[in-house]
């Protein structure tokens, strides 16, 4: 930490290894907020059994959480760009702890929804800050850095799914909320003291034809006026909606398929199908984010999107046809989440490549609100499943993912390349004109 003469804290200098330490701390913070989204499904049925509010009403809390988490990220990112990441992450740690403490005492839907808002504010503060900080520290490896950071969020719940499930059975869901909420919040709060942004500008990698990166730093208002941003936003919504629905509804789906408690044996391990599925989902999700980020650094963002979105469509189609078979349910959901989570590495990396590093936290925060928009579709899944069954829900998700895969290659790729090259040519032309005027 370095202090300026006026007492303000400036960012850390660029040192070999220091940025990797920053990345690791960001990953740990992300792991601590993972259960707010991915552990939620374990609490739905116990809450319903205790209060009889109905799944749809309880799942509305999940939607409120995701909407709050995502739509407030641009505001929280503005605070990061202005005051640094430390204070924002500290705030996030306090809020995520408070959220689960409130959940443990919630005896009405109003309090449950209030806790979702509080949790969303905290998770968004941590998520937006850590991903944005990774983009700033690693402009040369944006896909890998964003993917590794997002992996903390995707896989962070893997280590605690079984303990939480066991605690819910042995001590009740209220005790699980209280214990894990305080523990997760405390770890984030402590790590916040050590998180810092780079002090010097780090140059991006040498330009590659398959990985176009802008040399211009676009401000958030400029970004919002570009068509390429809104096309990326639309594709993000299309893909995220299916993943959020599956994450929130996987327990109800398993119960409706009557396989939740069916033992499944894989690689020498035996667990109930639902517990096995959720555990593998988190592992595959966590592995997929940095893996696809690394792949996109190598072959390009859009081709990687096409591979991932296409695979997701196939897995969802498999679930719609054979999801009632326990082993298929476990494996198909695992592979699906392995390719779904990459949106949280590819879109931040693509955003940084397209709009620059200086305002990366805020610009990515604006794009990340697409997750909140997608979450509005989650309650509809319960409505559709009640009327037509889960197969209909899966078929809709298949169509969205297949369309997104095609749009990545045939819409986003040419549009983004044209935008970057056009703006650079425009900038060069303006600079040349200014130079001639000064010479004259």
Automatic annotation (TrEMBL):
Q: What's a Gene Ontology MF term here?
A: oxalate transmembrane transporter activity
Pfam families linked to this entry: MFS_1
Q: Which UniProt keywords apply?
A: Membrane, Transmembrane, Transmembrane helix
Which Gene3D superfamilies does the record match to this protein? MFS general substrate transporter like domains (1.20.1250.20)
Q: Which residues form the Major facilitator superfamily (MFS) profile domain?
A: 1-416
The secretion signal range is none
* InterPro entries linked: MFS (IPR011701), MFS_dom (IPR020846), MFS_trans_sf (IPR036259), Oxa/Form_antiport (IPR026355), Proton-linked_MCT (IPR050327)
Q: What is this protein called?
A: Oxalate/formate MFS antiporter
Identify the species of origin: Bradyrhizobium cajani
Q: What's the name of its gene? A: oxlT
